[in-house]
Amino acid sequence: MEARSSDHRDRQIARLIAFHLPQFHPTAENDRWWGKGFTEWTNVAKARPLFRGHDQPRLPADLGYYDLRLPEARAAQAELAQSYGIEGFCYWHYWFHGHRLLERPVDELLGSGEPNFPFCLAWANESWSRSWLGDNREVLIEQSYSDEDDRTHARWLARACADPRYIRVHGRPMIVVYKPIALPDSRRTTDIFRSEFIRLGLPEPYLVGIDAHRPMTDMRELGFDMTEHHEPQLGVLGPDAFNDAALRTKFRRNLRQGIMSPTLKVYSYAKATRLMARLRPAFPHFPCCFVGWDNTARRGRHAIVLVNSTPELFRGQLALMVKSVLHKAREERVVFINAWNEWAEGMYLEPDSRFGHQYLEAVQSVTRATAKSGEPLDHQVHSSLRRTA
Fold first, then answer.
1. For position 8, what pLDDT does the model report?
2. FRET pair for 272, CA 20 to 30 Å: which of 26, 32, 58, 198?
């Protein structure tokens, strides 16, 4: 796979980086916790519809039920992403006091030099639990911290960041941290990361803190260089969304959607995105555009389901976010997309049996319009946003 030319990258104007989940291959830990041969596809394939018209199970199209141990699968993902205007992948990175999980895809792309496609890493610094919610119920592996571990971690990250494909901002390798508020002393951790990189002869890392667990927090106050304003922010849906019990409020809301259930948690994607827009901060940040949300594959009848998400609505959201970064320096025009392949959360750009390439085509239409005129919004996008309910 050939690298993109710098001229092509300059024409992109905005830098679209898609979060990438590496859990599509078996591991010893998942074998022990979930059963022999478990991968993300295990949950995806067994999902069943919870109500009439519910789009489950989700079925992959072009790439099939791939295995990320195979270089052909990793190359096919990169080629598809690049062809539709994605600059690179941001791989979730799982580090538990020196122990890494789901490490094989990243280790192999580092070791082989293939695919020749930009990437960066996002440290998913939370405990794993059997509920898939990162909570303290039946913890499978616990996240813990220490100064010495921060140094060890920084040294490992420095080796990855030295790769010529690694995504940089102003020449500095970009490292994303999922839960800055969980760090016992975030400024201490960020200082250690920076000092270790400098000691090893690398530029200081460009540290990005995700605000998923504390929206409206400027991560510069915690020692980071930038905030990634994460979406979806499911808290806007209200407390019912996190309550699995039967409730009258759920029944009334579901009934308006033709669903006779007091327990299911079903919401409108269009309404949810409008509510989330109110939380977008005025301080500098990298926006994050999410494709959709339906975690039925992981949580069954306790899932949160955003219905009526479409490529057109996603395109409108992405266009607005791209527009919001155009005033920045070229290197800082970063827009994250959530996600490339979060199939068990109904949040993926990869082609499926229902929409095919339409979500990727939505990305391409925004990037092409922006590259052509510097303005991604047009009458069609405005009209689609006005029509959403």
1. 42
2. 58
